[in-house]
Amino acid sequence: MLLRFAFLVALFTIPSACIAADWAQFLGPQRNGISKEENLIDRFSVDGPNIRWRTDLGVGMSGIVVTDKTACTLYQDDQQQYVVAVDVLTGDVKWKTAIAPNYKNGMGDGPRSTPAIDQGQLFALSGEGVLACLSFPKGEKVWSVDPFKEFGGKPSEYGMSCSPILTDEHVIVTVGASKATVAAFDRKTGELAWTAGNGNPAGYSSPALLKVKQTVQLVVFHGSGAMGLVPKTGKEIWSYPYITDYNCNIATPISVGDNVLLSAGENHGTVLLSVPEKAGGKISEIWKSFGNRSDFRNEWQTSILLNEFLFGFDNVGSAGPVTNLTCLNAKDGTVMWQKRRFGKGNMIAADGKFWCTTMDGDLVIVNATIKNYEELDRATVMGQTRQAPTLSDGKLYLRDGAEMICIDIRKNSN
C-alpha cells in the first residue's frame, strides 16, 4: 500500500494502488491505529482464540507490518539485529537480513521501532539508530546510514524507538543528535535531504503526517517538545515546549479535527493544540489535563480517536504500575468512562471494537462505546509485550520477546 496517504488525505482521495489488507507502517494505514476491516468476531470460541501459527523469533519490541502476503518485524539474536519476513499463510520465515550488531539495554534488549514498506522498499531503524533500506519483497540491503556518526550525539538512554515515516521522496526519522532533531534521507540513495532542529533529545515518539486545515504537516514529538514542519523541506512552522522526566515523550501525535493532540506519561498529561498553517502564526491550548491529577497520561501507547472521542491508556504516577483505560470527549477533555487498573497495554480499533494487548500477554476485546467500559472477551496468548496488534485481512499479528503469532478473528472462519 502506498504510504503517501497523508498527502492524499489532504486531497480527499484514496490511492488507486491501495490494498485493504495492508498494514504497512507503524499504527496502520493512516498511522492512527484504526482499521476499516469488518465482520470480525465479538468473542473467542469455546476453544479460545483461533491461532493459525506461531513462529519462533528472537528478542525485540518492534511492531509488525503486513503487505504482499508477508509479515515483517525486527528482532535480534546474540550477534545481530535483523529484519525478518514471514509468510502470512504458514508462518514460515522467507528471509532475514542483518542491519546492525545486537543491541543491549537495561530496559530491554533488541530493536524497538516498527519498519515501513512502500513501493518495493522497506525501511527499518535499529536499537542504536542505524537506518537501513532493504528491497522488498526480496530483503536485500540497499543502503544504511548512521545519523549519530553524521550529526554527533548519542542514542536515547532507553534505545531509539522512532518508527520511520515515508513521503514520496524521503524517509524521515527523529534523531535527537546535537546537529539534527529530525532528519530526512533520500529514499533511493540514503543521501541527506534536510535536517530540522538542534539541541533537542530524540525522545521515543514516532513522527506523523497530520492535516492542519488545508495543509499537511510533519509533526514531531521529540524529547523536549513538539514541532510542526513542512514535510518536503523540514522548514519549521511552529514549536511547543513539552518537558518530561527522562525525555519520555513516547506516544505519537494525532489529529483531532484540525488540531494536534500530545500526551505523555510520567505524571504529565495531555494537551490539545490549535496550531498555525504557516510559520509565524499563533499556537494556543484548546484544553489540557496536566500533572498528577491528570485524567489522561499516555505512557507508550498512542490513543485512538473515534467519532470525536479519545480512547487510551492513563498511566498513574512516575512510570507506575497503575494504568487505567479511559474514554474522553476530545473536544474538551471530559471523562466519559474509566476502567481503573486495566493494566499496561496497547490497542487498535476495528469493526466497532478495540483489540487490546496487555503486558501480561492477554488479548482483550473491548466494545468501542462511550457509555461505559464493556469487555467482550479475554484470553492469554503470549508472553510479555508492549506492542499493539497488527490487523490484516481478518487476522491479528502479535509478538512478544520470543515469537510472532497469527490469530484469525474473522467471523465464521475455520
Structure description:
The structure is a single chain. With about 425 residues, the protein is mainly β. The chain has one domain: Quinoprotein alcohol dehydrogenase-like superfamily (Methanol Dehydrogenase, Chain A, 8 Propeller), CATH 2.140.10. Helix content is about 5%, strand content about 45%. The strands form 8 sheets. A 4-stranded antiparallel β-sheet has the order 1-32-31-30, with no helix packed on it. It has a 4-stranded antiparallel β-sheet with strand order 2-3-4-5, with no helix packed on it. Strands 6-7-8-9 form a 4-stranded antiparallel β-sheet, with no helix packed on it. Strand 24 (about 325-330) and strand 25 form a beta hairpin. The protein is globular.
Question: What is the compact description of this entry?
Answer:
With 414 residues, this protein is mainly β. The protein has helices at 5-10, 147-151; strands at residues 50-56, 65-67, 70-76, 80-87, 93-101, 116-118, 121-125, 131-135, 141-145, 165-166, 170-177, 180-186, 192-196, 208-212, 215-222, 225-229, 236-241, 254-256, 259-264, 269-274, 284-290, 304-306, 309-315, 323-329, 335-339, 345-350, 353-358, 362-367, 375-380, 390-392, 395-399, 403-408. Residues 1-19 have low confidence and may be disordered.
